[in-house]
Amino acid sequence: MVLDPIIGGLHFTNVLMDGGSDLKLLYQGTIRNMGIDPTKIRHSNTTFKGVTPGPEAHCTGSLLLEVIFGFPDNFRSENLTFHIAPFQSGYQALLGREAFARFNAIPHYASLTLKMSGPRSIITVNRSIKR
């Protein structure tokens, strides 16, 4: 499911939420486009298997960022640690099972929506028809 959360204060338009993955990734191009101060990136020894051709890929660091879903009057935010992938993707970021759990979110793949509880009511995040 491709959604458009706010990550690190920036509105993203192409984030893959993958309930079959346990990863939270930002890609090299995304980091460059965000203009992140390199001193905020922490060292990480995390490796990925089955994501790229070959035996494994080593992440180039990790970064704690706030992720927001919803609207100004009814939203949820969580701080998530992203690993920085050493490769490019057609997506800006990937959010896996931990993101679903942290937001207590339920995906509805048939209608391409994500639902979670908010402070005022249920938050329903729809996939953009333009994508």
Order of helices and strands: EEEEEHEEEEEHEEE
Give the beta-strand count. Answer: 13
Radius of gyration: 15 Å
- What do the pLDDT scores average to? 88
- Largest β-sheet summary: 8 strands, mixed
Question: How many distinct helices?
Answer: 2
| Strand order in space, largest sheet | 1-4-10-5-9-8-2-3
Q: What shape does the CA trace take?
A: globular
| Distance between the ends | 11 Å
Low-confidence stretches: none
Q: Bin the strand percentage.
A: 35-45%
Residues in helices, as a percent range: 10-25%
The computed structural class is mainly beta
Description of the structure:
This protein is mainly beta and 131 residues long. The relative contact order is 0.27. The strands form 3 sheets. Strands 1-4-10-5-9-8-2-3 form an 8-stranded mixed sheet. The longest helix is centred in the first third of the chain and has 7 residues, at 28-34. The protein contains 2 helices and 13 strands, in the order βββββαβββββαβββ.
